[in-house]
Amino acid sequence: MQRKQHKNSLTRDYAEIILDCVADGVFTVDNKLIITYFNKAAERISGISKSKAIGQFCFDVLKSNICETECPIRFSFSTGKEIIDKHKNILRVDGKKIPITISASILKDKNGKMIGGVETFRDLSKIEALEKAIHKQYTFEDIISKNHKVRQIFNILPNIAESDSSVLIQGESGTGKELFARALHNLSHRKNGPFIAVNCGALPDNLLESELFGYVKGAFTDAKKNKPGRFELANGGSIFLDEIDSMPISTQVKLLRVLQEKEFEPLGATHSIKSNVRIISATKFDLNRLVQEKKFRDDLFYRLDVVKIEIPTLKERKDDIPLLVQHFIEKFNHHMHKSIIKVSDEVMKILLNLNFEGNVRQLENIIEHAFVMCQSEEITIEHLPTELIESNKEEKKESKFPVPLKESERSIIIKTLDKNHWNTLQTSIDLKIHRSTLWRKMKKYDLFN
Amino acid sequence: MKTILIPVFENRISSRLDCTENFQIIKTEEKNITKSEIIKIVAKNPIEKLNAIKSLNPSTIICNGLTDFYKEELIKNNIEIIAWIHGNIDEIIYSFLNGKLKSKIEL
Question: How far off is chain A from B66, nearest CA to CA, in Å?
């Protein structure tokens, strides 16, 4: 009897050792959905320790998006069937959503009586990041920002997405115009249709027209067969015309017809093709000025500029820099199989003081460069591009002038924000003021810009 | 008078603010509940839902899981958030009215 109990105990210990070694999260629940076992991978993926998880309801611990509607365990309990590899996401305690697949089935004792359920789940973060990079299926949630100007755009995006009006996105190079265009498409009723991106500036003038509208066999010497244009390929979806300012006047006329008549003719065709496409265009220039300079057709401009989204430069959203740095660290860790945790305080200070003429893309390139150079867990100054290191040395040589008294409060707030990487909570604690007071002062001193 | 909003699932606080449709909205004066009702917020996307929440003008939201997106937006709208709380709704409301409810994780 004692030997049998000892054997059972060893079996249980071995089972736990084995389950703690598997890469997938595994947990068990009793008939009331209370967690009775939680392995090491489950701790790692969820960010919740075994001691805190056991004894809690599984939905309070995992916080999946389907707990309340399609709980796999409840399904298994009621049908006796297994659930295999259901896609969902869970919410970690740091507020990040983790994409996972989950499998669930019921647990029975040796007499066949149901004693609970078991769920296994797999972290899909790396796979999803790669899929997003390949298929560019970005939503507004992929736009990393807590800046008020970007948040204001978020607030109006659903209304813009609901309509079929043309949208003009204006923003400097590297601000993420295409990301916003894709987010808009994915919020709209056209999200299951195609999203076709065309960079008007990247195609020679004579090619752009045939690329956009296609051609029929025999339209010109090399036209051996019919070729659909991007407008035809985008049917039922959205077309994104980047660098619209580069479009030649002759093509502008044809685009105007698409906007007015909702139809176009491929090169050499004798018939028109109906167009059911939403046009999202983008430019880094002030199109209105180009119209005044007669470089862009005014009638087309008014058709494209029905709704305008102006994307702030990175200089105008410096409070997003720490957030973006962390995002790029996570991204490049996935891509380069590294385990870099952070940038040093000195590096962050340099980044916060940069002008970022290349905007978010420039920041991304700096972090990518540092990733190549860095072999440790922290990116330090020597991992930065040489020109940044040199300009930092120059700045240090410059003498410091006293700050005028009237600016002292503003200056103290900026310094404390810089010290805390623009984390407003920590800054408010350091300054011994309430977070909402800090917000008001930041607004007063125009620090959101 | 204060307006408190709590996402609910059955008789418990919902595990995620962004994934629930049912909300208990309570109006309080000092420590007393003057009105309590369950409302439904159905939205096509998180922004729409957030705007619907903001339109209710809650002074406090008591919730469990909270995404970064919701947290930042609610804080900017001066809405007090008591988050990462789980348990029975009535017990949570009782704790709140008695000033004993605090976020489990510092926001």
Answer: 6
